[in-house]
Design goal:
With 371 residues, this protein is an alpha+beta fold. Helix content is 33%, strand content 20%.
């Protein structure tokens, strides 16, 4: 993997050189991990003018947290001395100035104002410029090793969800079910949940971002579940909706079939070169045409990777087009206040038609099951 991380740093170095920056300071944890193979708590990456000058700067032992991550073995690591370890970003700016750099590109969207000022005070002759979202853009297209991690995470999430569906659900609370799902994720090899697990029953079902409550599962409820697993840092997502009882009501079948049709339209639009807003439009217009404009989510999906919500965004105002090997979610839903709703959520990888089209990572059935 050392060659992979070195190649990523080289691409960023070329970007910085083209922009006139001699060095770069990467502080956002997911970006540090992407370029260095690990992101110990508070660590930053100093990207020098040459590969030999690249350095991972981390705080002293007392400020660190236990981690199983191991940085790229070809990358030099410097641990700051002292009880509190100091600020790695400030130390890195001082080191950049010592290496003879006259400018330093920083992730202004991640640094606080106070931290930005501190960088300028320790290296006043160092011109600070903005790195923008350069690393985030490098992260959009995944290599096959990254996709393999997402695939394994999806298998874990599918397994945890499948086991839950085989248990007795009536009478159990949303909170209890969410905790059980997260435990099962870890039991099956996940680093942990990719985000707080959402379980909604009855009027809470299908509500975007719903946090589990003490409401108990009842006969006739819609039950919506949204969970994800983190595996080697990579995060996937799956969402499904079920009915509790012997048979769903007519309105539940109608709403579910509509959301399923919208989700299928979005999935089928995932081809290299497709405009992100067109994917959103394909799913959204199915629901719009049925009169559910007011109950729709703000976006149809988003990228996933080292963070659960990455670029690209599949929304009405999204810019840009999809590339091959970009993992995204497709997650349309409708929530009817006081009644509940439906959400169907998959993680897929954009693939060209010659390779079989979009690769579905989350394979739990989308049939409307009565549990």
């Amino acid at each position: 993997m050392s060659e992979v991380y070195a190649a990523r740093r080289t691409r960023l170095r070329d970007y910085c050189n083209a922009g006139g920056s001699a060095a770069a300071l990467v502080s956002r944890p997911a970006n540090v991990r992407y370029l260095a193979g690990a992101a110990p708590h508070g660590a930053v990456l100093l990207l020098g003018r040459t590969e030999e000058q690249d350095l991972l700067v981390r705080a002293g032992p007392t400020a660190d947290r236990p981690t199983q991550e191991r940085p790229d073995e070809a990358l030099r690591v410097q641990t700051l001395p002292g009880a509190d370890g100091g600020d790695p970003a400030v130390a890195a700016a001082r080191l950049a100035a010592g290496q003879g750099a006259d400018s330093l590109a920083v992730e202004e969207h991640h640094l606080t104002v106070a931290r930005h000022r501190a960088l300028g005070s320790v290296a006043p002759r160092l011109r600070l410029t903005g790195l923008g979202s350069a690393v985030e853009q490098l992260r959009v297209v995944k290599d096959e090793e990254e996709i393999s991690c997402l695939r394994i995470g999806a298998e874990i999430a599918d397994q945890a969800l499948g086991e839950l569906l085989e248990s007795i659900l009536v009478g159990r609370t949303e909170r209890h079910l969410a905790l059980e799902l997260e435990r099962r994720l870890v039991d099956h090899g996940a680093d942990g949940p990719a985000f707080p697990t959402s379980v909604g029953t009855g009027p809470n079902a299908g509500r975007p971002g719903h946090r589990p409550t003490d409401r108990r599962v009842e006969e006739g409820d819609f039950l919506s579940v949204c969970l994800g697993a983190t595996y080697r840092g990579y995060r996937c997502e799956i969402g499904r909706t079920f009915v509790i009882g012997t048979a769903p009501a007519d309105w539940q079948i109608e709403l579910y079939d509509l959301v399923f049709a919208a989700q299928r339209a979005g999935r089928e639009s995932l081809v290299p070169g497709a405009a992100c807003r067109d994917v959103d439009r394909a799913a959204r217009q199915v629901l719009d045409s049925a009169g559910y404009t007011e109950g729709l989510t703000a976006l149809t999906g988003h990228g996933v990777g080292l963070e659960i919500d990455e670029d690209p965004q599949l929304s009405p105002a999204a810019m840009g087009k999809l590339d091959a090997c970009v993992p995204v979610t497709v997650e349309p839903g409708v929530h009817l206040p006081g009644r509940g709703g439906v959400r169907i959520d998959d993680t897929l990888v954009v693939r060209p038609e010659a390779d079989g089209g979009p690769e579905l990572l989350t394979i739990t059935t989308k049939e409307l099951l009565a549990l």
